[in-house]
Design goal:
16 helices, 14 strands, Transferase(Phosphotransferase), domain 1, elongated, disordered C terminus, PKc_DYR1A/1B, six-stranded antiparallel sheet, two-stranded antiparallel ribbon, Phosphorylase Kinase, domain 1, alpha+beta, disordered N terminus
């Protein structure tokens, strides 16, 4: 480094010259000293590097400085050669091509990978996982699942009394389990309500109604399920019921939906009418609101005794809670039209059930409420004008013409509406053709006379007007439940009639014509009796899906009959009490004639639901 000093003009005095000379000498010494120190440090560093490299280093100038140039070692050369690919990338898989020409294909691949991972994560979460993340999804301190249902554990004991056996039913309300009562040494069905406030509130109403009914039916004779007790278990309300057997839909399924005999249908209908009469007494006035084959259970798979279950949607007259009630196939016109309803809606459901039990197919199988009304009109014709005028949902199903009459709305799918009355109940039941599909031709108890009586009872049950619809009181007096001297094949009613002794219901009737109710309760005289072996006669057929009825259009079969004017409810004139000795005694049929499962597969374990 060279220090250049400017030329200075001679000073006027010698003192200034001396000072400048001294200053320049000191500055030059400092610069020289700094340069020497830097050179020494560089030399020391080069010596160290030379010692490490074994004198293989050379010096190369870099920006006026001496630096050490290290030749590449053989290992580095091999590493660099290894990084050179032997074969270059296919242009079709290059990132530039994937994100330009093949962009759609790239997105599809991304979607496939994403959904594959999502599916794998879902499968992992469903399996057994004891991780902390899984534990967070459990509710009620780990006793409930994410649907607020109690997690059933086989062998668990409730209250150290009920040992859980298995899950036998599940629904929107919760679950039903089979359990063994260690105290009473018997099996029971426990209905475990969801751990949610709305379900708890409705279940408490069900408990209240069941306790009222069971208290009124001390002798257990009116075909209502018995509630043994109820309790709270880990924030779940548990209802303990007697254990029952198949429901009527299971029975139909076991017949391959061919239906049961008219004799057995008669026994079911008489018990159900008796139960509805019991519910309609002024002390109860209970509307079931969800009567259907699934809610009617056999007490024993080889007997015709039945009981009504599931009062979760029920209410008392004057305390109606819901407007959307009843399962669609069994929903009454007043509920569809939005008319205030009463106990008569259960009678409508019963009429639908009885036809289904004999034919094996639902009478009105609508896919929605509009289609349901179309199916009803197709069989029964248009509802009365006064009924449609007073309903606030009439416009949902009907169009009003300028002359004040009504016609069905056109379906939204573009199909033509059904012709009112074009599907005859006469043909559905096969009154003159040997029963539904001709399957009962020649069988005892399936004469034209029997079918005419059955059809007349159904028409009265399916009266559009709830005020004129037949009541349980008058239904039990219908000719369908009578036996006369020239009709020895009709089923007697006494096998299913409640006993009158000690009854607190003086208006509860089971049938008429006590003189014909003899010890023969099978529905057949001795000359027509067939001894069925309950095991040999049972043949299993493969089940199939529930069919949908299709029938040819024909004019509506009309029948003239008086309408009932009384209903057992407050505000109506009750019918007179029956004469002394009117009630028949309750007897059980002999042999296997009372078995609904003869000729039906009973190898499967019964399904119990409440």
């Amino acid at each position: 480094m060279v220090l250049l000093t400017p030329n200075v003009a001679p000073a006027s005095t010698g003192t200034m010259d001396g000072w400048l000379a001294t200053f320049n000498n000191k500055r030059t010494k400092r610069v020289d000293s700094w340069q020497n120190t830097k050179q020494e440090q560089q030399m020391i560093l080069m010596d160290k590097q030379r010692a490490k490299a074994g004198d293989t280093l050379s010096h190369a100038p870099l920006y006026g400085r001496l630096v050490a140039e290290e030749p590449p070692c053989p290992g580095d050369i091999h590493a660099m050669q290894a990084r050179i690919p032997l074969q270059f990338r296919d242009p079709a898989t290059a990132p530039l091509r994937k994100l330009s020409v093949d962009l759609i294909k790239t997105y599809k691949h991304i979607n496939e990978v994403y959904y594959a991972k999502k599916k794998r994560r879902a499968q992992q979460s469903q399996g057994e996982d004891s991780s902390h993340k899984k534990e967070k999804k459990l509710y009620n301190d780990g006793y409930d699942d994410d649907n607020h249902d109690y997690i059933i554990q086989h062998g668990e004991k409730f209250l150290d009394r009920y040992e859980i056996d298995s899950l036998i039913g599940k629904g929107s309300f919760g679950q039903v389990v089979k359990a063994f009562d260690l105290e009473e040494q018997c099996h029971v069905a426990i209905k475990i309500i969801k751990n949610k406030k709305p379900f708890l509130n409705q279940a408490q109403i069900e408990v209240k109604l069941l306790e009222i009914m069971n208290k009124a039916d001390v002798n257990n004779t009116y075909y209502i399920v018995r509630l043994k007790r109820h309790f709270m278990w880990r924030n779940h309300l548990c209802l303990v019921f007697e254990l029952l057997s198949y429901n009527l839909y299971d029975l139909l399924r076991n017949t391959n939906f061919r239906g049961v005999s008219l004799n057995l249908t008669r026994k079911f209908s008489q018990q159900l009418c008796t139960a509805l009469l019991f519910l309609s007494t002024p002390e109860l006035n209970i509307i079931h609101c969800d009567l259907k084959p699934e809610n009617i259970l056999l007490c024993n798979p080889k007997r015709s005794a039945i009981k009504i279950v599931d009062f979760g949607s029920s209410c008392q007259l004057g305390q109606r809670i819901y407007q959307y009630i009843q399962s669609r196939f069994y929903r009454s016109p007043e509920v569809l039209l939005g008319i205030p309803y009463d106990l008569a809606i259960d009678m409508w459901s019963l009429g639908c059930i009885l036809v289904e039990m004999h034919t094996g197919e639902p009478l009105f199988s609508g896919s929605n409420e509009g289609d349901q009304m179309n199916k009803i009109v197709e069989v029964l014709g248009l509802p009365p004008k006064h009924l449609l005028d007073g309903a606030h949902k009439t416009r949902k199903y009907f169009d009003k013409m300028p002359d004040g009459t009504y016609v069905l709305k056109k379906p939204k799918d573009g199909r033509k509406p059904k012709v009112p009355g074009s599907r005859r109940l006469h043909d559905i039941l096969g009154v003159e053709s040997g029963g539904p599909g001709g399957r009962r031709l020649g069988e005892p108890g399936h004469s034209v006379s029997d079918y005419l009586k059955f059809k007349d009872l159904i028409f009265r049950m399916l009266d559009y007007d709830p005020k004129t619809r037949i009541t349980p009181y008058y239904a039990l007096q219908h000719n369908f439940f009578k036996r006369t001297a020239d009709e020895s094949t009709n089923t007697s009613s006494i096998s299913t009639s409640p006993a009158a002794g000690g009854s607190s219901l003086p208006l509860l009737l089971s049938s008429l014509d006590q003189t014909n109710n003899t010890a023969n309760t099978s529905g057949l005289t001795s000359r027509h009796r067939v001894d069925h072996n309950p095991v040999i006669a049972m043949e299993c057929e493969p089940p199939h899906s529930h069919p949908h009825p299709h029938y040819k259009a024909s004019p509506l079969y009309k029948t003239s009959h008086p309408t009932a004017t009384h209903y057992i409810r407050p505000g109506y004139n009750h019918p007179p009490a029956p004469p002394q000795g009117f009630y028949p005694t309750k007897q059980r049929a002999q042999d296997s004639e009372d078995s609904p499962m003869v000729g039906v597969c009973v190898q499967q374990s019964p399904v119990i639901t409440h």
